[in-house]
Automatic annotation (TrEMBL):
Cofactor(s) for this UniProt protein: FAD
Limits of the Acyl-CoA dehydrogenase/oxidase C-terminal domain: 239-387
Residue stretches in coiled coil: 288-315
Pfam families in the cross-refs: Acyl-CoA_dh_1, Acyl-CoA_dh_M, Acyl-CoA_dh_N
Name by which UniProt lists this protein: Isoquinoline 1-oxidoreductase protein
Domain named Acyl-CoA dehydrogenase/oxidase N-terminal: residues: 20-124
EC assignment: 1.3.99.16
GO MF term set: acyl-CoA dehydrogenase activity; flavin adenine dinucleotide binding; isoquinoline 1-oxidoreductase activity
Annotated Acyl-CoA oxidase/dehydrogenase middle domain residues: 129-226
Top-rank taxon: Bacteria
Homology family: Belongs to the acyl-CoA dehydrogenase family.
Keywords, in A-Z order: Coiled coil, FAD, Flavoprotein, Oxidoreductase
Length: 394
């Protein structure tokens, strides 16, 4: 049995780093009410005003070195920001998307690519999304068929992607595609490459899906029809994109955990306030153990997920192997968020299903985290195989 990769955690330093970001985030969240966010969600309108405020505060520059115009910091600071905003009811998946889509470019891109594709995101002038999932391949990303073939000095991209969040709101997307078909490589992990594609490029078509998960951003089916890409749109070496892809996905799992923990705590805050006020039998219902214990269990599980998230983020920033704990954090965080929202629903009783009480509105987003960006069953498979050393089942 292997042990999960771990980096020594300087708790005092990490706590201070997170505290500084949470204080800065408060300056943004206090300027935008949950009602504002609900209006954006209900109308699928991107919360541009909140996004601009994040840029004005320099918070979109987290993880970008100061030498490049950012504010520095790493995943620890970024998850702190995502968590702090989410626990006030500010659901900003584009922060998650841009945050992790920049990782492979920063780590594997040329200086010119960083200037062109990363620097404009620091102010918020441009946004990024990420395109990996395909209609037929689903969770088995290695079976993707989107293909970028060489054409002169560049490439032509053809294929489809699905469940691409915020594609219409983003300026560019980081696309995972094959530069060699799966049938042409010795190992299925070979032949995968990363490309930066403009969302309005000729040959790119966005088709909105009829999905509503409580986010301002919609989900899209994306078609690539002979999209011309210059050679400088390739990040890293052709066919060697797997490691960079997983760098992005580990960051994504941590940010999803932060959103889950934040939304779970937002739901609990509402439930506790209601449980202290509601007195159908003369005493607050929060004094009843049947109500109290359910909320207490959800809180304990949120804190456990949060600690795992912080450990994984610190490992990521130190250059260690964060995959084990990142996967565990996402598993625990998504489950805890659902448990917290359901506890809040039960506490509110029938009122919990009234959208004006803003509890049932949280459930789709929390529940989605058990399915996306990778379903929890696959996370359990990962833990079984890579942490426990059990045989692969699929």
């Amino acid at each position: 049995m292997s042990a999960a990769s771990e980096t020594a955690l300087d708790q005092g330093s990490v706590a201070q780093r997170m505290s500084d970001i949470r204080e800065a985030a408060r300056g943004v969240s206090e300027g935008f009410s949950r009602q504002y966010m609900r209006e954006c969600i209900d109308n699928h309108r991107f919360p541009q005003e909140a996004w601009d405020a994040l840029g004005d505060y320099g918070l979109l520059g987290i993880t970008i070195p100061e030498a490049l115009g950012g504010v520095g910091g790493g995943q620890v600071e970024l998850v702190a920001l995502m968590e702090a905003l989410s626990e006030t009811g500010m659901v900003l998946p584009m922060l998650l998307l841009t945050g992790f889509a920049r990782v492979p470019i920063l780590r594997n891109g040329t200086p010119d690519q960083i200037d062109r594709f990363v620097k404009p995101t620091i102010s918020g002038a441009e946004k990024l999304c990420f395109a990996i999932t395909e209609p037929d391949a689903g969770t088995n990303s290695f079976a993707m068929t989107s293909l970028a073939t060489q054409a002169g000095d560049g490439y032509r991209l053809t294929g489809r992607k699905v469940f691409i969040s915020g594609a219409a709101d983003a300026d560019r997307m980081l696309v995972v595609a094959r530069t060699q078909k799966a049938s042409e490589v010795e190992r299925r992990t070979e032949g995968m490459s990363l490309f930066v594609v403009d969302t309005d490029a000729p040959g790119v078509e966005l088709q909105p899906l009829n999905i509503d998960v409580g986010w301002p951003e919609r989900q899209y089916l994306v078609f690539f029809d002979d999209v011309e890409l210059d050679a400088d749109r390739l990040i890293g070496q052709p066919g060697q994109g797997l490691a960079a892809m997983f760098e992005a996905l580990n960051s994504e799992r941590l940010l999803v955990t932060a959103m889950s923990v934040g939304l779970g705590n937002y739901a609990l805050k509402k439930a506790v306030a209601y449980a202290n006020e509601r007195k159908p039998f003369g005493k607050p219902i929060g004094s009843y153990q049947a109500v109290q214990h359910r909320l207490a269990e959800a809180k304990a599980e949120l804190e456990a997920a949060r600690l795992m998230m912080i450990q994984a983020a610190a490992t990521f920033d130190a250059g260690g192997k964060a995959g084990d704990h990142a996967n565990m954090a996402k598993l625990l965080g998504s489950r805890a968020a659902v448990k917290a929202v359901e506890a809040a629903l039960q506490t509110h009783g029938g009122y919990g299903f009234d959208k004006d009480y803003d509890v049932i509105t949280l459930w789709p987003s929390a529940r989605l985290m058990e399915v996306a960006p990778v379903n929890n069953e696959m996370l359990l498979n990962y833990i079984g195989e890579h942490v426990l050393g059990l045989p692969k089942s699929y």
